[in-house]
């Protein structure tokens, strides 16, 4: 007997599935379910063969195919849009008649020759040796005493009469102090020892050709108050020296001192000796204001060998225009008699105004106005040629000293 082929086995298998079961008497067996219905018995269908499963599989494949088709369509549309937005490159116009290309020899002959410049060489930096260090011995040192180093430059006097105007109590009234700088002559400003904030003022005064003193308060006769840290006769030498140093160390650029009041202290030889010794150690000069006829200041200074002088005229013991003008006439007469004279005034408005009128008139009569250091040098027998570390501003004062050295 010939064995059945695959198609025959499949055919007979389908017929067998449809044929009624032998055990059920030619009828399909029905199984009772839980809801009272009977289900046809027989062999169960495979899972994939069930209708619901087959529909789910078909639906899934259809979804996959739809998504793929949609993706391809979108990609195709994007490429089309990009192609539309990008302008097409125009073909280059073809030459009507192409010229024959020259040979390499002709190209070389037609090429203009450009002179070739040599490449610039890197700039050579000169190596400069550093200057040798300056030792302390090589630093220039001005060995002159302070009264000459800080003295204002004096105009040439010759045989003409000269007047030195000293203004005491400077620095207590700032407005009047500024007006003193506008006088058209070199004057000597005696700044009060306890005056505040005078550094810039002193610098400007020296730049204009004026000279500086420190006005040291000293004890007077009577009950008048000379001011802060005044020198009094009841102080010990150490305290006198300490108070004097306090006044001197607060200022700079001055040639010496003169006394504020001091009619009692300047008459005390012991106290004045302490003052003169301190000035000698600093190389400073002493101007005796001579507030008392019994003053020993100039005598003590001359004995110690320091430059010194005394005032000749007080300008404003009596404050008033006519009284001050009379004193100015007096100082001019003394200058003509002695060759030089020292006048001391104060920064009163009347004094400043009287000086403003007197100075140009006196210059017209041949009077020379000098700093007090010039008179001190003449009376002390000192050389005046080296004096002149400061000078007047150009154009500010007629007949003003030469500009400063530095």
UniProtKB/TrEMBL annotation:
It comes from the Bacteria. The keyword S-adenosyl-L-methionine does not apply. InterPro entries: Divergent_DAC (IPR006837), Glyco_hydro/deAcase_b/a-brl (IPR011330). Residues 27-47 have a biased composition (Basic residues). The keyword ATP-binding does not apply. Gene3D superfamilies: Glycoside hydrolase/deacetylase (3.20.20.370). Keywords: Membrane, Transmembrane, Transmembrane helix. Pfam families: Polysacc_deac_2 (PF04748). The chain crosses the membrane at residues 53-74. Residues 21-47, 84-134, 386-406 are annotated as: Disordered. Residues 87-100 have a biased composition (Low complexity). One of its GO terms (biological process) is carbohydrate metabolic process. This is Divergent polysaccharide deacetylase family protein.
């Amino acid at each position: 007997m010939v064995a059945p082929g695959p198609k025959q086995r499949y055919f007979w298998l389908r017929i067998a599935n449809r044929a009624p079961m032998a055990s059920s008497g030619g009828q399909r067996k029905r199984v009772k379910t839980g809801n009272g219905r009977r289900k046809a018995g027989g062999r169960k269908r495979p899972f994939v063969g069930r209708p619901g499963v087959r529909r789910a599989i078909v639906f899934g494949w259809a979804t996959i195919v739809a998504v793929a088709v949609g993706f391809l369509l979108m990609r195709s549309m994007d490429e089309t849009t990009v192609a539309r937005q990008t302008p097409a490159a125009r073909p280059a116009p073809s030459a009507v008649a192409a010229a024959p290309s020259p040979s390499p020899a002709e190209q070389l002959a037609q090429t203009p020759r450009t002179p070739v410049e040599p490449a610039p060489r890197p700039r050579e930096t000169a190596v400069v040796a550093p200057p040798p260090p300056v030792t302390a011995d090589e630093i220039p040192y001005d060995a002159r005493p302070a009264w000459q180093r800080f003295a204002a430059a004096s105009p040439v006097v010759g045989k003409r009469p000269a007047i030195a105007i000293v203004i005491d109590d400077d620095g207590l009234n700032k407005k009047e102090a500024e007006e003193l700088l506008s006088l058209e002559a070199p004057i000597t400003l005696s700044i009060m020892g306890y005056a505040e904030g005078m550094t810039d003022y002193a610098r400007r005064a020296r730049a204009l050709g004026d000279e500086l003193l420190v006005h040291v308060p000293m004890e007077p006769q009577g009950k008048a108050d000379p001011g802060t840290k005044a020198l009094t006769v009841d102080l010990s030498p150490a305290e006198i020296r300490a108070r004097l140093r306090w006044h001197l160390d607060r200022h700079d650029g001055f040639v010496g001192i003169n006394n504020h009041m001091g009619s009692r202290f300047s008459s005390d030889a012991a106290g004045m000796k302490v003052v003169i010794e301190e000035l000698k150690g600093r190389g400073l000069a002493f101007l005796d204001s001579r507030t008392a006829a019994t003053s020993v200041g100039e005598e003590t200074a001359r004995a110690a060998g320091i430059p010194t002088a005394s005032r000749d005229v007080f300008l404003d013991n009596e404050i008033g225009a006519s009284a001050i003008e009379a004193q100015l006439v007096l100082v001019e007469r003394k200058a003509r008699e002695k060759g030089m004279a020292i006048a001391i005034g104060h920064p009163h408005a009347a004094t400043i105004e009287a000086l403003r009128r007197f100075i140009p008139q006196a210059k017209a009569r041949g009077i020379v106005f000098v700093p007090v250091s010039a008179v001190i040098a003449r009376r002390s027998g000192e050389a005046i040629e080296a004096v002149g570390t400061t000078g007047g501003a150009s154009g500010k004062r007629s007949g003003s000293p030469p500009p400063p050295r530095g």
